[in-house]
Design brief:
Strand content: under 5%
CATH topology: Serine Threonine Protein Phosphatase 5, Tetratricopeptide repeat
Number of strands: 0
CATH superfamily: DhaL domain
Radius of gyration: 16 Å
Largest sheet: none
Mean pLDDT: 94
Order of helices and strands: HHHHHHHHH
Number of domains: 1
Helix content: over 70%
Distance between the termini: 7 Å
Bound molecules: adenosine-5'-diphosphate, magnesium ion
Number of helices: 9
Low-confidence stretches: none
Shape: globular
Length: 204
């Protein structure tokens, strides 16, 4: 836990880098089946967290996660902000409730459930939730980080064939088929970044 906190600024930097590098791509995905703002939304949120990375690293991990969640809600906006925010806030709350002994992995299922409630969405709706469920399954199987990252990428790819049932893309009906969901893509990219970081710093 202590190590996780000390490594947090580095992890934030890694997540920020992947969002900045892929903002245009996320925008293009959202232009195809939404309103085109997912890249700029995610970049805005990422910049806000990146700007506070040192202060966040000085907080106990549960508080840091809740603070990141609140920053994401306030800055990403759109549909994705409250969903990513809920994930982090809930994980932080669970960690705090269990004090220091609750592994981060145990906080994931209730946090993912909170995201589903918040979005009134479920698996197969072609959203970022499809990636979160895949990550959760891999984490609960105790897959190594590299495999968790692969399952996130596969889950994002799998949204291409789906018809969107939630969010703006659902307005397109069958025309949403054939495009990757932008939120699923950002979620897989962030998962990849976090997993690469965890491989580099296994104690995190
Ligand atoms: P907006 O749709 O308001 O423009 P963004 O473009 O930032 O917001 O985010 C769109 C992404 O949010 C979608 O690609 C999808 O993954 C996710 N999303 C939208 N609505 C929902 C929902 N009800 N449940 C889960 N995820 C959703
Ligand atoms: Mg959008």
């Amino acid at each position: 836990m202590q190590t996780s906190r000390l490594l947090l600024p580095g992890l934030i930097e890694a997540c920020h880098a992947v969002i900045v590098a892929n903002a245009d791509h996320l925008g293009a995905l959202d232009r195809a089946i939404g309103d085109g703002d997912h890249g700029t939304n995610m970049k805005r949120g990422s910049e806000a967290v990146y700007a506070e990375r040192d202060q966040l690293g000085g907080l106990p991990l549960p508080e840091a996660m809740e603070r990141i969640g609140m920053l994401l809600v306030a800055t990403i906006g759109g549909a994705a902000g409250p969903l990513y925010g809920t994930l982090l806030i809930e994980m932080g709350r669970r960690l705090r409730a269990g004090e220091v002994d609750v592994p981060l992995t145990e906080t994931l299922p209730p946090a993912v459930e909170a995201v589903a409630r918040r979005g009134r969405s479920q698996a197969g709706d072609k959203t970022l939730l499809d990636v979160l469920y895949a990550v959760q399954r891999a984490v609960l199987k105790r897959s190594p980080p590299a495999e968790v990252a692969v399952s996130a990428t596969v889950a994002a790819q799998d949204t291409i064939a789906m018809k969107a049932l939630r969010g703006r893309a659902s307005f397109l009906g069958d025309r949403s088929i054939g495009h990757m969901d932008p939120g699923a893509c950002s979620c897989a990219l962030l998962t990849g970044s976090i997993c690469r970081f965890l491989e580099e710093f296994p104690s995190a």
